[in-house]
Design brief:
Number of helices: 13
Bound molecules: protoporphyrin IX containing FE
Number of strands: 0
Radius of gyration: 20 Å
Structural class: mainly alpha
Shape: globular
Order of helices and strands: HHHHHHHHHHHHH
Largest sheet: none
Length: 210
């Protein structure tokens, strides 16, 4: 029996990536969500079955971004088999310190007091908001203009990620409505769980105090 279909094998990603030779620097965006949104539910249904269980859920690249940032969801790896391309890399990232952990180090270098329980936290778990860190960030916002610029840029990045989640959910909602995902999730309700969940909780939590 042939191996089960995956997004990577369906799209022949290994080969596809070798075809990308951007000529612009930096690369131009290609507005793919706008284009996909022109597909009606009935035209998508006409070939959706052929995706079998393949799904964006299997995007190792997306999960790598989430894990590297600190948005760790071990449950998402459990859906992948150990021989899935990229599985080992995800397991490794799950156990590595994330951008948020390195951010704590950076804050400490700038004189912030980072509680020991945060320095020694279980890095396989998603990062959580922490009022003690928020207090320290507020001080840096007031006393260090260059830190404030960094915090604003990090907030921009986080907002962009949430905007992507929102665009994707709307694309999914208008294309498949209440149908389940091909990857086996409930579809839109599953995707909504991560909508509005930031990576840099502490930066969002203090904005009314600035
Ligand atoms: C008509 C177009 C699309 C539909 C109907 C759709 C549907 C879905 C659904 C239902 C899920 C939840 C997992 C599942 O059960 O399958 C999902 C996840 C995902 N999709 Fe899409 N998708 C579409 C287009 C795209 C595009 C264009 C991208 C990327 C460029 C993408 C990337 C992802 C990623 C990364 C996930 C995992 C999200 C997470 O775990 O939070 N999808 N998609």
């Amino acid at each position: 029996m042939p191996p089960p279909l995956t997004y990577a094998s369906y799209l022949d990603l290994e080969n596809l990536f070798t075809l990308q030779k951007p000529r612009s620097s930096p690369p131009e965006h290609d507005a793919q969500v706008d284009i996909l949104e022109t597909m009606t539910p009935s035209s998508f249904s006409s070939f959706r079955d052929r995706l079998e269980t393949a799904s964006g859920f299997q995007s190792v690249q997306f999960r790598e971004i989430e894990f590297a940032l600190g948005y760790k969801r071990e449950s998402t790896v459990r859906y992948l088999k150990p021989d899935f391309p990229g599985y080992d890399r995800l397991q490794q990232l799950l156990r590595e310190r994330s951008v948020v952990d390195h951010f704590y180090d950076f804050l400490a270098m700038r004189g912030a007091q980072i509680p020991t329980d945060l320095k020694d936290r279980d890095v396989t778990k998603p990062n959580e908001p922490d009022e003690r860190v928020q207090e320290q960030i507020l001080q840096l916002y007031k006393n260090s203009p260059e830190c404030s610029i960094l915090f604003e840029l990090m907030t921009d990045f986080d907002e962009g990620l949430q905007e992507w989640r929102y665009r994707h959910i709307k694309l999914v909602e208008r294309t498949i409505g209440a149908k389940k995902g091909t990857g086996g999730s409930p579809g839109v309700p599953f995707l909504k769980e991560s909508l509005f969940k930031p990576v840099f909780h502490d930066l969002w939590a203090i904005r009314h105090e600035l």
